[in-house]
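User: I'm new to structure prediction. If I give you an amino acid sequence, what do you actually give back? Let's try with this one:
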Amino acid sequence: METINTIGRRKSAIARIYLSKGKGNITINNKKLEEYFTIDQLQYIIKQPLNLLNVSDEYDIKINLDGGGFKGQAEAARLAIARALVKINEEDKPKLREKGFITRDSRVVERKKPGQKKARKKFQFSKR
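Assistant: Good question. You get back a string of structure tokens that encode the predicted 3D arrangement of the chain. For your 128 residues, that looks like this:
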């Protein structure tokens, strides 16, 4: 099996992953998973698709993360891993879709408009 490349996005975070046969090592920006994401919840988010299919120790994953915050980066990586697993075995897609790992969360921050305080908030109106 050759290396499988996929991309996942969430908010302004982009995750490019390279998935290949291995022993379950996950490397993010040349650091171990535990060094990059010190919060257990974020480590869990990344491993969710692997744990669902019970393949967490069958593949080595190299992830390049760029942009966004920690949570967005973790969810972008989860999407990329789920897409790579579907490329390997198409029959896993219904299981992953049921948990929502295949769906791209398209919500992004709304831009600030001119003449307003924020995207929706206006400056205080004064009658006199």
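You can read the tokens as a compact description of the fold. Here is one thing that stands out. The mean pLDDT is 94.
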